[in-house]
Amino acid sequence: MRLLAAVDAAEASANGLHVQAQGDLRIFLPLLFSRYVMAPLLAGYADRYPAVRVIAHYHDYFPNLHVEGLDVAVLVGELPNSSLIARQVGQVRTVVCASPAYLATRGEPRHPAELKQHHLIASADPVHWDFPHYTLKARARLRCATVQGAINAAVQGAGVIRALSYPLHEHLASGQLQRLLPTFELPPQPVHVVYREGRHASMRVRSFVDYCVTALREHPAFQLA
Question: Which BP terms does GO give this entry (predicted)?
Answer without folding.
Answer: DNA-templated transcription
